[in-house]
Write a structure and sequence with these properties.
The chain has 62 residues and is of the alpha+beta class. The chain has two helices and two strands; from the N terminus they run H-E-E-H. Strands 1-2 form a two-stranded antiparallel ribbon.
């Protein structure tokens, strides 16, 4: 994800992702963010949750 500059940004994004059914954890790494799931969640839903938090973009989802 691009545009994450502070702990407040991380918290806002983690809360938005955690609100999605199936998301169990969000871990921010230096170059990427890991989102752990207990069942499939559509990429579109993950991207929308992140982008709804502000001026952030999702580079790719593996």
């Amino acid at each position: 994800m691009e545009g994450i500059h502070c702990q407040t940004c991380r918290k806002r994004i983690a809360e938005a992702l955690a609100a999605l059914p199936g998301v169990t954890d969000v871990v921010f790494r230096e170059e990427f963010t890991e989102v752990f799931l207990d069942h499939d969640v559509e990429d579109r839903a993950l991207k929308k949750a992140v982008e709804s938090c502000g001026d952030y973009s999702v580079g790719k989802i593996d």
